[in-house]
Amino acid sequence: MNIPYRPLTLGLVALAFCGIVLERAQAGGDDYFPPVIDPVVKEECGSCHIAFAPSMLPARSWKRMMGDLKNHFGDDASVDPETAARISAYLVSNAADTGGKRYSSKLLRGLAPDAAPLRITELPKWVSKHRSVPAWEWKHKDVRTKANCVACHADAERGFYED
Amino acid sequence: MQQNLVALLVIAALTVPVSSFAGPRDDLLAQYATAARKETPAFSGFSAARGKTLHTQKFAGGKPDTPACTTCHSENTRGAGRTLTGKAIEAVAVSVTPQRYTDPAKVEKWFKRNCNEVLGRACTAQEKGDWLSYMISQ
Q1: C-alpha to C-alpha distance for A46 and B89, rounded to whole angstroms
Q2: What residues 81-140 of chain A have any CB closer than 8 A to a CB of chain B?
Q3: Domain span at residue A105?
Q4: Model confidence over A113-142: pLDDT tens digits?
Q5: B75 versus B11: which is more confidently predicted?
Q6: Where residue B39 sits, what CATH number does that domain have?
Q7: Neighboring chain A residues of B117 at a CB cutoff of 8 Å
Q8: In chain B, how many domains are there?
């Protein structure tokens, strides 16, 4: 077990500096991404992996993703058309480049204005933020995939990506 | 006499919340039985033992990284599972997670997805009923 120090320290940091974190969150800090609160989106997009924060991708990415849920990274994530429309509306209106929020503008830095990536983990800014993570850590059995944010960011589901 | 009455009331109070969930599961099993009879006229009921085999068996027809139901769901049906992306899954045993299998659309959605992932095809009504019987017995 080489990993647990990270969740542990993150947990402690989160506890110790709760006040500070909240303050920064309210001010729209760089590392706070409001979690999904819509129950349908949580249920349909949060059972295979955490419900990724809509503010981590631009609206055009969410539209592209919602256009083909049948082939979702090799999985069938399809839902009925009504549910899809509801999810789509939620993701698009809370996306990184809509809704007038500024939390995530930094995460989109370096992304071509017409690029619609399907992966958060392929955003240039995400890649550069994670350059310091060694290869063995990505392959660790408790991580397995870059999309497993909670393995390293214990508070990811609540929107915090503090280091 | 009075003691018996009290005991009865206690039993009733204890069983009501449980049985109020049993309805949709029984209906679902009945639907699968009807469908199974159509698939194979020789259908002779569901078996929790066969369900257990289905749950733990390794298949070659699906995706290489998900050879079995137990890749994500725990082999110990009363324990928590985990998807490949690290998301925790509540226990599949009804005794541990009593609200399970009470929403037929949810059950069908996941049978469709997961059977395709693991077996590379849809599950038969017989397989679904067997698997469900196993989880209800757990």
Answers
A1: 11
A2: none
A3: 29-158
A4: 899 999 999 999 999 999 999 999 998 888
A5: B75
A6: 1.10.760.10
A7: 75
A8: 1
Residue A105 lies in a domain: yes
Task: Please report the pLDDT score of residue A162 as a whole number.
Answer: 78
The Cα–Cα gap between A79 and A68 comes to 10
Angle between helices B104-119 and B125-137 in degrees, nearest 10: 110
Mean pLDDT of B57-63: 94
Nearest by CB to B87, from A48, A75, A76: name it. Answer: A48
Q: What is the pTM of this model?
A: 0.86
Q: Which of B63, B85, B89 sits opposite A145 (nearest CB)?
A: B85
The tally of domains found in chain A comes to: 1
For A6-47, write each residue's pLDDT tens digit. Answer: 554 444 444 433 333 343 344 345 688 999 999 999 999 999
- The nearest CA of chain B is from the CA of A100 a distance in Å of 31
Pair B135, B45: CB distance under 8 Å? no
Residue A13 at interface with chain B, using a CB cutoff of 8 Å: no
Q: Is position B71 within any domain?
A: yes
The pair of three-digit structure tokens given for residue A92, joined into one six-digit string: 């698009």
Residue at B7 is within a domain: no
Residue B86 has its nearest CB partner, among A74, A79, A144, at A144
| Residue B36 covered by a domain | yes
Range of the domain at B88: 22-137
Structure ipTM: 0.77
pLDDT, tens digit, for every residue of A92-112? 999 998 865 655 567 898 999
CB B136 within 8 A of CB B102: no
Q: How far apart are CA B24 and CA B79, in angstroms?
A: 24
